[in-house]
Amino acid sequence: MKDFYSGTRIIAGRGAVKELKNLGIKRLFLVTDPFFAENGVAQQIATAAQAQAAEIFQDVQPDPSVTLAAEGTARVKAFEPDGIVALGGGSAMDCAKAMAYFSGSKAKLIAIPTTSGSGSEVTDFAILTHEQVKHPLVDARLRPEVAILDDELLQKLPPSLIADAGFDVLAHALEAYVAKNAGAITDALARDAFCSAFAALPASFAGNTAVRLKVHVAATMAGMAFTQAGLGLCHAMAHSLGGMFHVPHGRLNAILLPAVVSCNAHRAGEKYAVLARSAGLGGSADTVAVRNLKNCLVRLRTELKLPGTLAQAGVDPRQVWYGMDKIVEATLADPCCNTNPIAVEGFMVRQVLEEVMGRV
Ligand SMILES: NC(=O)c1ccc[n+]([C@@H]2O[C@H](COP(=O)([O-])OP(=O)(O)OC[C@H]3O[C@@H](n4cnc5c(N)ncnc54)[C@H](O)[C@@H]3O)[C@@H](O)[C@H]2O)c1
Ligand SMILES: [Fe+2]
Q1: Topology of domain 159-356, per CATH?
Q2: Best of 44, 127, 157 for a ligand 1 pocket test (most atoms within 8 Å of beta carbon)
Q3: Does pLDDT of 86 surpass 90?
Q4: Distance CA 200, CA 319 (A)
Q5: Ligand 1 contacts CB of residue 123 (under 6 A)
Q6: Range(s) for CATH 3.40.50.1970 in the chain?
């Protein structure tokens, strides 16, 4: 049995943030990071909502900690908002979602993503870090009520952020497509998101701002797919490595994804082949199509100037060897393993790590 539900209203297009004023918010609590506080965008958004009172929490850091979410939770409880707006990438959105959840606030939760990556604006996930371990919280109450996709906020995206977040979208779509809970509806969303992001990322990276909304919508579609279908080994490992080494989440996915495709191919090969053909990567025999998929991911990674190994991303391979048991343990404990197309075992994690570790 499949059960598909997406309770998030999605408002998309140039200037979509203007819709905030029509959401009836009287007491607005806006959660963002120092970048948007310092460049004035947070204040502009707060003003655009036309609330009677507004408070801005601007201390979000990448890979937000449990402690930070607890601080914000106390501020939400004290302010008693009727609207919580998350402005930023996955980190700001996850932090705001956790604050809303832990405070028990009944405020309307509105997500305004400024990166095209996490899909957090439509997912049941919030990822918090505690003692070097990333913990995915999963609960339907974490899903925002409204997502506003405005490409005006993406005009000045730095290329490295387009690349990192872009590979997060590809990883969400690809993993959701072969995940254990995938069904016809999540397949359609995941396949379209993968093809759309795969085709538009090089142009977006090269500075073409006209395609940014396309990648932005693809990120949201991939989010809708994976929140129902689940993810897999790539994300479980990205969480364990991200907690330990603080490499950006999407960059870790770029390093891991081709190796995970090889690892899962004997079970998921047929669907990987459909995805490859849908993206125009050819291959009459499934094995050829899967090889093309892996090779094209590697080529795109190079084109987007992303590292191919953990060593190239600045992680000393010796640290990976020393931390191997901890990485394996954290990966196996991650809920994303539960929906990988093959039951994840320790040797698979070690095999992928050896492929992506690189040299000193
Ligand atoms: N909840 C989910 O469903 C989900 C899914 C995937 C990833 N995540 C989490 O999301 C986080 C990663 O999110 P992310 O990749 O969006 O990055 P991020 O939110 O960590 O932001 C990275 C940096 O980019 C800057 N930034 C954001 N938007 C910008 C813009 N428009 N222009 C210039 N700079 C900008 C931020 O200020 C920040 O310094 C990770 O913690 C990951 O675990 C959550
Ligand atoms: Fe992700």
Answers
A1: Dehydroquinate synthase-like, alpha domain (1.20.1090)
A2: 127
A3: yes
A4: 36
A5: yes
A6: 9-154
> What is the tens place of the pLDDT at every residue in 273-322?
999 999 999 888 999 999 999 999 999 999 999 999 999 999 999 999 99
**Residue of 120, 216, 244 to mutate, ligand 1, most atoms within 8 A of C-beta:** 120
Q: Which residues, at least 6 apart from 120, have a Cβ–Cβ distance to it below 8 Å? A: 86, 90, 93, 94, 97, 111, 113, 126, 223
Helix then strand count (H, E) for the chain reads 13, 8
What is the reported pTM? Answer: 0.96
**pLDDT tops 90 at residue 186:** yes
pLDDT digits (tens, 9 = 90+) for 319-344: 999 999 999 999 999 999 999 999 99
The pLDDT value recorded for residue 296 is 98
As annotated, the residues of the chain forming the CATH 1.20.1090.10 domain(s) are 159-356
Measured between alpha carbons, how far is 357 from 99 in angstroms, rounded to an integer? 36
In short, whether 73's Cβ falls inside 6 Å of ligand 1 is no
226 CB less than 6 Å from ligand 1? Answer: no
**CATH number, domain 9-154:** 3.40.50.1970
Please identify, by atom number, the ligand 1 atom nearest to the C-alpha of residue 154: 31
Q: Is residue 135 in contact with ligand 1, taking CB distance under 6 Å?
A: no
